[in-house]
Design a protein that fits this description.
Length: 80
């Protein structure tokens, strides 16, 4: 697909990528870019990666993680 076509039909191009298609974008007959579906990831993937390395964490890092969690803990706005 030419860059001009991609520009004019960008929403459609994104829809195609969302459905799993990889689109090669050209300009002047030369490959310019490749648009492909983003890899899926979940919080579970990150958690598993951290758990694999938990034994190698030092105390300072563990303290930083706890401090960050404490900053992110929000009060329930719906409670009395």
């Amino acid at each position: 697909m030419t860059a001009t076509e991609a520009s004019r039909n960008f929403a459609s191009v994104l829809d195609r990528a969302e459905r799993g298609e990889t689109i090669v974008i050209t300009r002047g007959g030369k490959r310019l870019a490749i648009l492909s579906p983003a890899p899926g990831a979940t919080g579970r993937v990150v958690k598993d990666a951290l758990l694999r390395h938990v034994s190698s964490l030092d105390d300072a890092f563990a303290d930083d993680v706890k401090a960050t969690r404490d900053l992110l803990a929000l009060d329930d706005p719906w409670s009395d």
